[in-house]
């Protein structure tokens, strides 16, 4: 399957068990969500690599568990903490190198920071330079109640950093921020490199397994991203209380695969 699934779908199942379960379901692409510091130990990452190799998996991205504190760690006026934050994230970069992951997903800072946007962009760029030395890229996600929730912020980052700035589009988070996801596509174009997928309904549920009963128009999403040259991966990212059985995730992937194939064939 070309559509992937995040290990976050099965939280609080332990990370290695969630990853193994995704592999056993037949997925070939995944995002691994790390959930504690000990999971960054080389021995644990090696365990994940053993699963990856045994099942022929492709680890597309890694998601740090300390995303809630990235504003504090990287985007405050306390310079020393920023340097310490970089040292801490080198562990993710090393894990990405071991697992072959292309992207590290960053939430960034909240909607209010005590540094300027120019300083924010410069720090992000410096962090990314270090990530590149390990063979990976930090990609900024749009998350409700964070600076990145809004297209204007992403546009500023793109303008300041150019093609070096990459974005993760999460349509669930766009819904929660009351932002049209197509506004991101319009201004970010091919700088979007990774997409988190989920469905919604008319009753306000915004993180459901994608299927024909859902309210979100995936054909339009795939079409618009195809137009701007998107060549990243689509990743189903749910929470375990949003579905009852793993087969729902498989059915979602098959449903999305059919739509994606139709879009690429111009149907």
Shape: globular
* Biggest sheet character: 8 strands, parallel, barrel
Helical element count? Answer: 10
What is the number of beta strands? 8
Helix content: 40-55%
The helix/strand class is alpha/beta
Using only CA atoms, what is the Rg?
Answer: 18 Å
Through-space gap between termini: 20 Å
Spell the H/E element sequence: EHEHEHHEHEHEHHEHEH
Mean pLDDT: 97
Strand order of the largest sheet: 1-2-3-4-5-6-7-8
State which percent range the strand residues make up.
5-15%
Q: Give the low-pLDDT segments.
A: none
Briefly say what this structure is.
This protein is α/β, with parallel strands linked by helices and 267 residues long.
Could you explain the architecture of this structure?
This protein is of the alpha/beta class. Helices cover 45% and strands 14% of the residues. It contains ten helices and eight strands. It has helices at 15-24, 42-55, 70-74, 79-99, 117-133, 151-161, 171-176, 181-188, 218-227, 246-264; strands at 4-6, 29-33, 58-63, 103-106, 137-141, 166-170, 192-197, 233-236. The chain has an eight-stranded parallel β-barrel with strand order 1-2-3-4-5-6-7-8, surrounded by five helices. Helix 5 (117-133) crosses helix 6 (151-161) and helix 6 packs parallel to helix 8. The longest helix is centred in the middle third of the chain and has 21 residues, at 79-99. The model has no long low-confidence stretch (mean pLDDT 97).
